[in-house]
Every structure is written in structure tokens, then in C-alpha cells.
Amino acid sequence: MSEHAATEHEQLLEEAKLAADQTYSPYSQFPVGAALLTENGRVIRGVNVENISYGLTNCAERSALFSAISQGFAPRSFKAIAVYAPKVPLISPCGACRQVLLELMAPDAVIICQGSDALATKVWTLKELLPGAFDSF
Ligand code: THU
């Protein structure tokens, strides 16, 4: 990985950490913050938002993506997303989010994941997260 990419990933993780302070997660007590990087260098944050009807919960990754689309950013124009969850050593996106990430992120996007153990930080591609995916594009 280039030095530039590593710095970009660090900065995006910092944004995801700031987002993790804003979650609405009273049921799971499991805060997750996400930060999405657009092709023009803008950052859009997302958090997990829970509900007393548990199944209505929205993960941080989907919150960030849906917020970006709502603000007019083009689908598939997002080059990276950082995800931060302090309650586990390493966070890994759920299956539902993987399918949504595949459809809305740029095809060569990276998913940067970090938990409480910074040394365990992972950078995944969409193909690695969802091999053999259902993808109509
Ligand atoms: N969650 C996320 O926001 N992102 C993930 O990658 C995994 C799980 C949320 C959903 C729920 O609010 C809480 O974490 C516990 O599952």
C-alpha cells in the first residue's frame, strides 16, 4: 500500500471514530461508526441506528451510504469506507451490508475495518467480502 493510501485510510478511520460517538445503539450497546470517501474527497459519516423493534436496525455502513445517496452523490462513486467498532478487536460488515456495499461502492473500492486492536486493522475489497455475489451489473 502506498504512503498516500495509508494516510487516507488513517484519516477516514478517524472520521469513523468520531461517528462512533454519535450512534443510537441503546439495545445492543455496540456502537459502530462509518465514514465514506467520495471520489471528490468528501467524507460522509454514518452510524448504527437501532429501534425497539430490533429488526428495523440500520447498520453504520448502510446509514453512511444511504445518507450519501440522499445528498445526491452518485452510486458507485465511493472509493473507500472506514468502519470502526470499539467493542470488538476487529469489526467485519454483516452480510446485508456486504450486498449493499457491492451495489453502491465503486467496483475497486476498499473497506477499511478497525476495532479495539488497531494492529488487527483489515482492508478488504468487495470481491473478498462477497465472493460469487449476486450482481446484475
Ligand atoms: N452493526 C453495524 O452497524 N455494522 C456492522 O458492521 C455490524 C453490526 C450494528 C448493528 C447493531 O446496531 C449492532 O451493530 C449490533 O449488531
From TrEMBL:
It catalyses: 2'-deoxycytidine + H2O + H(+) = 2'-deoxyuridine + NH4(+); cytidine + H2O + H(+) = uridine + NH4(+). GO terms for molecular function: cytidine deaminase activity; identical protein binding; zinc ion binding. Its EC number is 3.5.4.5. One of its GO terms (cellular component) is cytosol. Its cofactor is Zn(2+). Keywords: Hydrolase, Metal-binding, Zinc. Substrate binds at N48, V49, E50, N51, I52, S53, Y54. It is an enzyme of class 3 (hydrolase). Residues 7-137 form the CMP/dCMP-type deaminase domain. The active site is at E61 (proton donor). Pfam families: dCMP_cyt_deam_1 (PF00383). This enzyme scavenges exogenous and endogenous cytidine and 2'-deoxycytidine for UMP synthesis. Belongs to the cytidine and deoxycytidylate deaminase family. This is Cytidine deaminase. The gene is cdd.
